[in-house]
């Protein structure tokens, strides 16, 4: 089946969401460096630390969309071995997630043990070889850098998705059971596996569902780009206005995410191509640096706190945002992209390698 334009384009709208969500997390952490003593009523009432949690919910939903978009055709493939699809998926995910985490986790570990100050809510308990190994796997509560807590439910989603490559029936059954358990845990009816099977699963499921409904979204709600951008600040502010709502407020956050991404997915390739070149450059720049910015801003802010002091005035606050963005850009250029290219070459060489005699016996080669 031929791809449509909306399937081939790179979803500039999603790149903007990814980048802005990462910046929201960075800004939300300014409050911790100010010892929770924010300087303006606006920050105190709206753009508080809870905004970072909403941004992470956006990341979860975004992962559901992006992973499904990247692999949904492979799920219907009848020409590739299921084990090959499974291993290829995990090679891509491991190279995407772990090296950047290890880099910034190591930096964070060195800075902390060199005496750099960290906020009270996060003290890395990496005091033994065993604790370091546990943190390196991302499968245990201890993390080498604070924002990495969200990578554990992310990896659990990857695990559920990868089961579909091995057996669609088993994969969907396991995913449905986990979704029901996540709803039960989110409603505090149960607590089984609540560390990973929680509200995060609902955001992943929302992303998967929205991607599959994108043709309907294109027909019903095609909006211009400015209309899409309108939802981002509105979503962050309304769902975090302290006098109105507390966090987490799962139903409203899910509704807000659905509105935001429904608008984003309704953007066609033609609509995005008609945008000014600078807006496309900015969108892809923000999308490219988002992962390194999300993980790396924390140790960078530790250094800034030591040499600049707390971000208690506009110039310092700006430095606490822009300097991590610069470091994230360098990390993206010199670490992320080379590793992604390497993983693609590894996968390509694996696919191109001739089958062994044993494999030929079973494949007819």
What report would you give on this structure?
With 365 residues, the chain is mainly alpha-helical. It has a domain at 15-123 and 208-352. 73% of the residues lie in helices and 0% in strands. It has 17 helices and no strands. The protein has helices at residues 5-8, 12-28, 30-33, 41-45, 50-75, 82-113, 129-137, 151-166, 168-186, 199-212, 214-220, 225-238, 250-265, 269-273, 277-308, 314-352, 357-363. Helix 2 runs antiparallel to helix 5. The longest helix has 39 residues, at 314-352. It starts with a helix and ends with a helix.
Could you name the key traits of this structure?
single chain, 365 residues, mainly alpha, 0% strand, disordered N terminus, disordered C terminus
N-end to C-end Cα span: 27 Å
Helical segment tally? 17
Which regions contain 5 or more consecutive residues with pLDDT less than 50? Answer: 1-8, 36-46, 241-248, 355-365
C-alpha Rg (nearest Å) = 21 Å
Helical residues, percent: over 70%
What is the strand tally? 0
Structural class: mainly alpha
Oligomeric state: single chain
The global form is: globular
Mean pLDDT: 78
Strand residue content: under 5%
What letter string, H or E per element, gives the SSE order? HHHHHHHHHHHHHHHHH
Main sheet record = none
Produce a short descriptive summary.
It contains 17 helices and no strands.
Helix/strand layout:
Blueprint (H helix, E strand, L loop, with lengths): L4 H4 L3 H17 L1 H4 L7 H5 L4 H26 L6 H32 L15 H9 L13 H16 L1 H19 L12 H14 L1 H7 L4 H14 L11 H16 L3 H5 L3 H32 L5 H39 L4 H7 L2
């Amino acid at each position: 089946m031929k791809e449509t334009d909306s399937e081939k384009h790179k979803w500039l709208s999603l790149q903007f969401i990814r980048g802005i969500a990462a910046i929201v997390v960075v800004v939300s952490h300014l409050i911790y460096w100010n010892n929770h003593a924010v300087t303006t009523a606006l920050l105190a009432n709206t753009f508080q630390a809870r905004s970072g949690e909403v941004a992470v919910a956006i990341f979860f939903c975004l992962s559901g969309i992006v992973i499904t978009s990247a692999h949904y055709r492979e799920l219907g493939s009848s020409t590739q071995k299921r084990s090959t699809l499974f291993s290829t998926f995990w090679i891509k995910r491991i190279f995407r997630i772990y090296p950047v985490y290890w880099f910034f986790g190591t930096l964070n570990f060195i800075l902390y043990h060199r005496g750099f100050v960290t906020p009270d809510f996060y003290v890395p308990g990496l005091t033994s070889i065993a604790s370091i190994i546990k943190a390196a796997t991302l499968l245990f509560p201890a993390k080498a850098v604070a924002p990495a807590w969200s990578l554990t439910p992310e990896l659990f989603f990857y695990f559920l998705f990868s089961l579909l490559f091995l057996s669609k029936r088993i994969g969907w059954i396991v995913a449905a059971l986990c979704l029901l358990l996540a709803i039960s845990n989110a409603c505090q009816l149960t607590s089984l596996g609540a560390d990973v099977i929680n509200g995060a699963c609902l955001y992943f499921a929302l992303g998967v569902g929205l991607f599959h409904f994108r043709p309907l979204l294109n027909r019903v709600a095609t909006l211009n780009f400015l209309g899409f951008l309108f939802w981002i600040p509105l979503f962050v502010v309304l769902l975090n206005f302290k006098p109105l709502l507390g966090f987490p407020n799962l139903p409203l956050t899910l509704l807000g995410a659905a509105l935001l991404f429904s608008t984003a997915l309704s953007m066609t390739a033609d609509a995005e191509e008609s945008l000014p070149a600078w807006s496309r450059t900015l969108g892809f720049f923000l999308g490219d640096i988002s992962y390194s910015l999300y993980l790396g801003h924390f140790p960078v802010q530790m250094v800034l706190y030591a040499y600049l002091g707390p971000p208690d005035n506009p110039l310092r606050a700006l430095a606490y945002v822009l300097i991590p963005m610069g470091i994230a850009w360098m990390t993206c250029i010199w670490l992320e992209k080379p590793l992604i290219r390497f993983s693609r070459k590894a996968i390509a060489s694996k696919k191109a390698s001739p089958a062994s005699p044993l494999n030929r016996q079973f494949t007819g080669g």
